[in-house]
Amino acid sequence: xxxxxxxxxxxxxxxxxxxxxxxxxxxxxxxxxxxxxxxxxxxxxxxxxxxxxxxxxxxxxxxxxxxxxxxxxxxxxxxxxxxxxxxxxxxxxxxxxxxxxxxxxxxxxxxxxxxxxxxxxxxxxxxxxxxxxxxxxxxxxxxxxxxxxxxxxxxxxxxxxxxxxxxxxxxxxxxxxxxxxxxxxxxxxxxxxxxxxxxxxxxxxxxxxxxxxxxxxxxxxxxxxxxxxxxxxxxxxxx
Amino acid sequence: xxxxxxxxxxxxxxxxxxxxxxxxxxxxxxxxxxxxxxxxxxxxxxxxxxxxxxxxxxxxxxxxxxxxxxxxxxxxxxxxxxxxxxxxxxxxxxxxxxxxxxxxxxxxxxxxxxxxxxxxxxxxxxxxxxxxxxxxxxxxxxxxxxxxxxxxxxxxxxxxxxxxxxxxxxxxxxxxxxxxxxxxxxxxxxxxxxxxxxxxxxxxxxxxxxxxxxxxxxxxxxxxxxxxxxxxxxxxx
Amino acid sequence: xxxxxxxxxxxxxxxxxxxxxxxxxxxxxxxxxxxxxxxxxxxxxxxxxxxxx
Lengths: 239, 237, 53
Known about the structure:
The complex is a heterotrimer.
Chain A: H1 9-41, H2 55-82, H3 86-117, H4 125-144, H5 150-164, H6 167-177, H7 196-228, H8 233-236
Helix pairs in contact in A: 1-7, 2-3, 2-5, 2-7, 3-4, 3-5, 3-7, 4-5, 4-6
Chain B: H1 2-6, H2 16-33, H3 35-56, H4 60-81, H5 84-92, H6 95-101, H7 106-135, H8 140-167, H9 174-201, H10 207-236
Helix pairs in contact in B: 2-7, 3-4, 3-7, 4-7, 4-8, 4-9, 7-8, 7-10, 8-9, 8-10, 9-10
Chain C: H1 3-52
């Protein structure tokens, strides 16, 4: 089979439709497992009590907000390099989900910060750069839709995504570079100081969010394909 | 003007330096012919920086604490307000297309325009910042650090802003869209720039902040002209 | 006496966090369905308009 077969919107439309349910199913399964591990198996924290359980949403959402932006920027790079339509459509499909996870990360972080640090918000490096990430997502969506010609919007937003990519290392390394309020990372490839059930719940929720994000992006790109290719024969024959 | 530029040994016609020199001298001449537009932006923000002490009150400690931040925000706004005019005028009357067709490489004249924008907005503010800082009761060391930070940071603002301005050429939503794109990208520069002056005022070394600003400037100078050129090509296709 | 109000407060923060997340995900799913329905409607309208001629 030709490697580029699925880079045409019509073939990818069918593939995305076939794949999406499996990703949502995986999200539901890992989500249930993660919540079980998080609330039934994981013990009460010695310092924070029960409120630490926000971590099972907060950290996976933050990870997803960065991962989705990275993938979105990669699709933007593909769009600019190869001038394809589908790559730009995938980037547009990922942006709202990414913005949602960024908002969830900020919101849950605020409601975790209030009981533990005493404040909902502080202009610490990580929080500020995560907020900048939210504005980058919103800017991407606004710029992509700001032109009459959708191809112009595709390419302008792709370039914006690439320029904003410099924000991601700042978010990631900010807790190492600045000794401010947000705690340092407890999880790395070398090992972790967390209790094993807490760690497993966090990882399961991360996979859950990841599967959900892929599923949502696939469903959204199908709609974008319908909108953009609505004048073609194969779309007309669908409905 | 273009004759003088091409007679320089470096600036052969069709080279980066020739394009830079041409665009820089052209934009600077244009802004000096309309001093009202360019001076207005600078004067407006000198005014704003002067209004803060009047509005906030004369508490010297409070003023000294907010001084660097206020001056930096004024620098941001000065850079931002003069951004739409960077490419829009040439875009609407077709000069941008002609410049694209010229033998000079695109990053050359684009960098020249960005440099002229900085000379008209960021440089005056950098030069005036010690005077503005005196109103906030900042000491000599802080004033010096603030000026150095502005010297390093305002070109980054011009470069980032130029890329965003090129992205939004002819877009619906105009200035608000430009604000949504440019201001989040300005935030790290603001944080490090104001942080440098605050560190100096607190007795700590501003070197880390200034080093990061310098590194950011190098990255910006190397990468953003190409980004702006790509954005212009996207706008003109 | 000191422990219970503490735990009740934490329930508030936990609930707000999880509820907001659930709401956000549900809002996204609903928005997806609305957008898809509108796209299909537009396609059918355009097709009907063209077959009229």
